User: What shape does this take?
Amino acid sequence: MSAIKIRLKENDLQQLKDVCKSFNNEEGELINVLHKAQGIFGYLPAEVQEVVARQLKISVAKVYGVVTFYSFFTMVPRGRYPISVCTGTACYVRGAEKVLDEFKRLIKVPVGETTPDGKFSIAGLRCVGACGLAPVVLIGDKTYGRVAPDGVRKILKEYDDK
Amino acid sequence: MGKLKVKIDNKLVEVEQGTTILEAARKVDVDIPTLCYMNLGDMDIEHKPGGCRICVVEVEGRRNLAPSCATDCYDGMNVKTHSIRVMNARRTVLELMISDHPFECLTCAKSGNCDLQSTAIKLGIREINYPGEKSTYKPDFSPAIIREMDKCIMCRRCEKMCNEVQTVGVLSGINRGFEAVVAPAFERDLDHSECTYCGQCVAVCPTAALTEVDHTNQVLRALADPSKTVVVQTAPAVRAALGEEFGMEPGTLVTGKMVAALRQLEFDYVFDTDFAADLTIMEEGAEILSRLSRHLSGDTSVKLPILTSCCPGWVSFFEHHFPDLLDVPSTARSPQQMFGSIAKTYFAEKIKTDRKDMVVVSIMPCVAKKYECTREEFSVDGNPDVDYSISTRELANLIKRANIDFNKLPDEEFDAPMGESTGAGVIFGATGGVIEAAVRSAYELYTKETLEKVDFEQLRGMEGIREATVDFNGFPLKIGIANGLGNARKLLDEVRSGKSEFHAIEIMACPGGCIGGGGQPLHHGNSAILKERQKAIYREDANKPLRKSHENPSIIKLYEEYLGEPLGEKAHHLLHTKYFRRGRTICIEPDVKEAE
Assistant: This one.
């Protein structure tokens, strides 16, 4: 059928099906399945959602509903170095918004998007539980504490050759 | 367990455990306003998300107000349904809802028939104290249904119908907070989804967020064009419901008045889809018998059970969800399309008119029929067999617009020849009717004996899935009937797994069959109305002098003069169709493509 396009690679597909299977293809495990899937692919493109829907025997609309409900899930590929600026209460009152603005200014993309070279993506996130270090920034697995707007350029410099 | 004693507005009521405050209140005639709540009792469809908070009441000893649709009674409960606190809360909730709703009631398609509007009237809303941002969405125009989600109040009734009742799974709540809306996956438009256009979402939408595409203006233009011969056909279920739009009791038959109204609207020929329903039986009945006799003579390649194919919502459903079973349904076109095809060939020749100068309009209880007449296979060189399909509601609208006093119209008769029909054609309008009509004819053709008792009570009813065995002179013909696509899916799953024991299955997409169609006057959740319509259909059947399709003189003549034999070459060309695999979505893995 001409309407069908298969965009997922065979081994990606198998990996995704294995994830579903590890949760017994249970409808109630949708969020866990999506969480794992995003861990593998970095994001949740339409194709991934369709496979998950098929495996869990639920409608794609329902899967899409869950993906769009939780801000954790994204349909846009994240950068190799995803930047998360905590905007929880403690970080916010200590100037997280200005830090976020500085990141946006320097990498030239708005929140929720990825730089054209796929290097950085930027997102706000709610409290990471490290309020003592406020304002907190995460880049990949690395944590930066007490970040000030004028320190942002220096942080980004660490990734210059990567 | 004993009964619970509950006091509602100082009225005592005794209820069973598990009864909600709303149900208890209705028992003692206390009216609590509702908005998102929906209960189609007989069809076992209840929707009480407790989301809109219009039905809140005050329960003595409880800190906050309780949503009455979703709160169970307990013994000794004392409920106040219209205290100042309750009334203020309802008003605030409704004002907030309306503050994010377009103020275009005067020109809105649902004006006068809108639950949000009637609730605002009931609660006496005169101003909105919450000016603020309004959510806006791109409107979605499909061949049959319009989605204008600016008008959505998130009651999620449509979601209930689409997912749980019909199991079509196109609509879901997406996004959150202010951006939350009901939409197909990836916010595609309906035309690029698996939507079957059954219209049940339209039938339950409290506002104009979901409406049918309005074709009344095109019909009026055709009527005003002197170069066009405009032919109209009316589906069986329309006559049993149209009266409701003019204040008549549900179940009032208005066949004669409907014909008179159509003549006053200046249709050139007022014909009946029932005629085409009789024709459908000739073809479908012959097909059932042909498959059956091949099966009985030991041909294992023959596909049984045979499935009816009159319902376009159902046809879309199996094309999308059961593409591996495309050779199981009957190939007979629906009555609407058989009518169009015969009108623009046989009848066009009779009145010496070119098909291009002919406009065929159908009045249908249905939304999917609009989509059906746009299907390419039902046209000749781009000229569709049926030009416009309008719903029962749209016809009522046309009659009102033309200032016709419907209630005072005389009873008139359909024109000949395509207005002649039998009782078998009429019962197509109710679930079980198509198969009953088929049995009436197939019995006589199979046994070569006269069928004395034409009423097959065992095939009638409202239950979602029914089964019956009809004795064909010693041969037990096993029949299955499903109404509502969720029920159809259950029978289809059995067919797919080879477990189905039936010889023939009738399927209608809408609960109750066409009488409960997506294009009918809104029943606002009152399923008693559907029962009355159903009774009306069988009353019309009982009153017909002829009740077997193959006895219809105009049908006999049509075969003699034009078609030849049922399933013959000409009949095949004009009255049969084929089905298509519909692309489910953008990607399907090769190994789960569900049985090529």
Notes: Residues 1-5 of chain A have pLDDT under 50 and may be disordered. The two ends of chain A are 43 Å apart (CA to CA). Chain A touches chain B through 25 residues (CB under 8 Å). Residues 10-22 of chain A form the longest helix (13 residues).
